[in-house]
Amino acid sequence: MNRIWERPNLISVVILVIILVIGAGYVLFTLQERPETESFTVDDDYFFPYNFDRLDRVVKLPGELEEISGLCQGFRADEVFAVQDEEGVMYRVNAVSGELLQRLTFGKDLDYEGITRKDNRFYVLEADGDIHTFDYAQDTTAEVVSNKLETSFSYRNDTEGICYDSITNTLLIVPKAQELNPQSDDETRRGIYTYDLVMNELNSQPTYFVDGLEVGQIIFGKNREYVIKPSGIAVEPSTGYLFVLSAVGNILIVIDRDSQVKHIELLEQNTFRQPEGITFGPNGELYISSEGRGGRGMIATLTRNAQTTSNNGQRGESDRGEN
């Protein structure tokens, strides 16, 4: 009688079954542990102006943007710029139709995770923390030459999110994995680092942070960490607050400049399979992109609601029927 290790096909089947059981168990555990409430406003004085129960629009993207990994504001209404994590190509996209309006090659095929701009200057973030930068004009052809800004980050940090902060004239960068200089007493914190565009240098210590333990206390109501691995970041124009996106946990966290949590939104997993890109439009629209994970990538649009005051002095949100 053959021993099990002499029957490789059977071994493969056993391993596959074990993997499936573990995966099914994890999914079941996640579903059981996900709280029923999906929206948490921590500060009663803060009005969260987006309603994730009523997305204005969700558009599917062409196949080449299945792994869309970064998003930034365009120059025209309803247009955004995007990158995906395999090719050195910037895409100009119509966020209403999902149509690709332009492809612009800027570099070699590497692992690109984020994109932002200051006026006509673009910055594309690589997973190792390098920043590829180039100028763009409306009549730019199919290719530009980019320069590389090196930082202290490396692939062990897995930098995924970048945005321009006009308040401080810096780039905000978030690592998904290890912190730049990990501290034993900050194991649940995820840092947000600033890159000074005047000095062309990265601050070695995080300027802002999101604390997974604090987020877990808000969501679960007990001393328990909610695992966060930031995948995108954007600055809300009207308040200057930071919107931090995490594909792990499907969560959006709003913090102020003191790193205090203002609002938490748990994103619907069937719609946002792997949310990694986030930006704001010229009229306050919120755009969030998600990788397809075997399907087509997408961009969701949320119109900014105006805060209203009722006759009794209580605040509420306006109706969206105007859009």
TrEMBL record:
Name the record gives this protein: Uncharacterized protein YjiK
Top-level division of the source organism's lineage: Bacteria
Biased composition (Polar residues): 302-315
Keyword field: Cell membrane, Membrane, Transmembrane, Transmembrane helix
Subcellular localization, as worded in the UniProt entry: Cell membrane
Pfam families per record: SdiA-regulated
Gene3D superfamilies, per the entry: TolB, C-terminal domain
Chief place where the protein resides: membrane
Similarity comment: Belongs to the YjiK family.
Gene Ontology, cellular component aspect: plasma membrane
InterPro entries named among the record's database cross-references: 6-blade_b-propeller_TolB-like, YjiK/CarP
Stretches the record annotates as Disordered: 302-323
Transmembrane segments: 9-29
